[in-house]
Structure formats: C-alpha cells, structure tokens
TrEMBL record, chains A, B:
Taxonomy, superkingdom: Bacteria
InterPro entries, sorted: HTH_HxlR (IPR002577), WH-like_DNA-bd_sf (IPR036388), WH_DNA-bd_sf (IPR036390)
Coiled-coil segments on the chain, per record: none
Domain HTH hxlR-type, residue spans: 14-112
Gene3D superfamilies in alphabetical order: Winged helix-like DNA-binding domain superfamily/Winged helix DNA-binding domain
Keywords: DNA-binding, Transcription, Transcription regulation
A Pfam family per the record: HxlR
Protein's recorded name: Helix-turn-helix transcriptional regulator
Length: 128, 128
DNA sequence: CTGTATCCACACTGATACTG
DNA sequence: CAGTATCAGTGTGGATACAG
C-alpha cells in the first residue's frame, strides 16, 4: 500500500478542463436538469433560472451547445422562438449527475457543519 | 409532458455553490483522487499535480479540509511534515466521482468533435 | 519540507440598458 | 421573444520569489 503517485497520472486523462466533477460553468448543471423533461424555450428557462441574467444564461447555453450536450433550434415563424433540448450525449449525463446530486444532498449538512467548525477554529487562532 | 418548470425548483437545493457537478475548485477532483490510495504528504501531492503552484495547491487543500473532505495532520518532528488524507465523507465522494470520470472518458472525444464542428461553423458564419 | 508573499492576467459573473 | 452591449466587481489561477 501507498505506492508512489506517477507524475503523469492525469496528464492525458485530465486536461485542466476535464475535471469531471467540475463540469461546465456555474449554471450548466441546473440548465441540464431544466431540460430533463423535454425541450424548453429561452423564456421558459429564465423562470427557474431567474437569478441568472440573460447574458450569462445565453453563454451557458451556447457553451453546452458547443460541446454537443444540447441542441438549439430556431423557429423563424410569425412569433419567432428558440428551443433548447438535450442531445443523446447530454441526456447520457443525467445519470452521473443525479448520482452526484444525491451525494451532495446527503452530505451537504455535514459539509456546512465542517465549514463552521473550521471557520470558528480559525477565528480562535486569530484571537488567541 | 412538458409541465412548466417551477420558479423555485432549485432555490433550496442548489445555492450557487451547490451545483453538484461543479464541486470544488479547479483541482479538487484530482486532489481527491490522489488521496484515494491513502495519506500523502504535501511534497508527494506536488508530483502528480506538478502543474499546480504551491499556493494554489495549498488553497485547494485548505478548502477541502474546510469542507471536511480531507484531514490535515502536522507532524512536528525533527523532519517536520504534513499529511493529508480523506475523511469518511471525502471517501464517500469517490464513487460518484468515479462515475462522472467514466462518463467523461466515454464522451470526451465526441465533445471535442462537437466543439470543433461548432467552432468551424462559427468561422464560416464570420467569413460568409 | 511546507508552505506564504506579491504581483499579474483573465475569465466568470452580475447589473443595467438596449435591440432585431 | 431572444437575445446583445457595456461596464464593472470579484475570484481564480499562474509566475516568481521568499520564509519558518
């Protein structure tokens, strides 16, 4: 046990952008979950993502589109609108993400407690 | 199908820092995987994480310690050293992370392809 | 050995206002 | 309706040097 860690352990596997537990930008996870139930229009996404400004939401959507995780379709009709939907690749991400969500929900409380303890200890260090 | 998305869908579940697929900072995932095999010293971690400056690695380690995912132990001996190891909470994260890693490995190529297509299309738009 | 200090660059986010 | 433009704040990461 405790063999040395190879220096190139993650060189190929993990370019800096491929930390798999740190996928996408701040809102990517929520965007994907919002599209879980089927195609959504931009204005529909803005409801659950009301804290996200349109500029930021647009960028997040474009980034996911760029990576082939969602498909953007423009309907140039009398009342023009745009629909976003998960691609098969994007849909394949739902399961690992749900697992990560479950983990986060189960451990969120203890992480908050740990933070509080850590911060309190730091305060005491400063004081004393 | 296609019911409206509730506006408060993620208010409680996902404060901005609790996007579960975007855990920790840039290097958190790799740090955790480096600790999978047991306790490691700071200098040992620096080998596989050679691209990370000590300042950034320290910050990442402190952040994980703050959240109770790793434990930091100082040995104040003749040759002082520090060991980091996963807590039970930290270890519980290995499985969801491994699943996310598997997904990323399986879909990394197609995501790169999608990016290339997307960028090429954008270039053509500019040109023509 | 295990970090800190300093300076810098830039990406990300956000608020507000505006447009085809 | 579906975005863009602009400006600004902040954090996050990186290079380099230094310290207990």
């Amino acid at each position: 046990m405790r063999e040395p860690l190879p220096a190139d352990m993650f060189d190929e596997l993990c370019p800096s952008s491929l930390n798999p537990i740190r996928f996408g930008d701040k809102w990517a996870g929520l965007v994907i979950r919002c599209l879980e139930g089927g195609p959504r229009r931009f204005s529909e996404l803005r409801v659950p993502l009301s804290r996200v400004t349109p500029k930021v939401l647009t960028r997040s959507l474009r980034s996911l589109e760029r990576d082939g995780l969602i498909k953007r379709t423009v309907y140039a009709e009398a009342t023009p609108h745009v629909e976003y939907e998960l691609t098969p690749t994007g849909r394949s991400m739902l399961e690992p993400m749900a697992i990560a969500c479950t983990w986060a929900e189960q451990h969120w409380d203890e992480m908050l407690d740990a933070r509080e303890s850590y911060d309190n200890a730091a305060s005491l260090d400063q004081a004393g």
